[in-house]
């Protein structure tokens, strides 16, 4: 039986594991703009636009990166380990990272049954996991912000921005952004879910973000923010740095799914569970594309350990 999240928050222990800070050992103030660019750019599968990113890192010592998440249940390793690797790379390059705990958004999207107390419990739980993994929280460059508290504190700034974004876009354009909620354009959306993309777009400007560091599945709303800058003649557009989405463990799964435990490795999984899942994972010989095991090695194992050993018998050439 799974341990309830409220109990897990109380029982979770925080250790001090070794965590990769960056491939560049130099202190931030010794890094050149090009070195910072290489570190930051390595976080994203896609960057819109690279010249804007280099210019930002050249002119601004501490650019603001925005990331966010809905507290919606268990955390898989893409969210736990990969996000930690990415955040630590960003802070090593001098960036400040604002992590938006989207509790109101989780309610709009009916996560945890829309119960804000449960959503808050999950949010606190996920923060504790990142502490345990080794996210760079001692540098003062990472800040967790609860959307409900921040929006209430500056409602006169937030809601006019949301309404202006809503006014400048038609319904069809907003529905195209439904992917950000894990929905499709064909799904029957509530009025609250239609409002969701306008709010997420507003978050970027509300948090004064220079860089949107979200997954590829959030690309459409980030592009919406850049288009909004064109509509309102804003000079500095947010740079989109979209990280790779780790696939599920089974064939044809574009990303891990919390609703399918066999497709994901969760941060709370015991070693035996992880071994079983990996052994059952889709891993065809001599096929690289769409192979989740190779993707995990590329995006998790190598950035963390800088090496991966394939154990083989001497008859087969020995370890490699």
From TrEMBL:
GO biological process, one term: tyrosyl-tRNA aminoacylation
Reaction(s) this enzyme catalyzes, per UniProt: tRNA(Tyr) + L-tyrosine + ATP = L-tyrosyl-tRNA(Tyr) + AMP + diphosphate + H(+)
Compartments where located: Cytoplasm, Cytosol
GO molecular function, one term: tyrosine-tRNA ligase activity
Comp. bias intervals (Polar residues): 20-29
SUPFAM superfamilies named in the record: Nucleotidylyl transferase (SSF52374)
Primary site of residence: cytoplasm
Family membership noted in the UniProt record: Belongs to the class-I aminoacyl-tRNA synthetase family.
Name of the protein in question: tyrosine--tRNA ligase
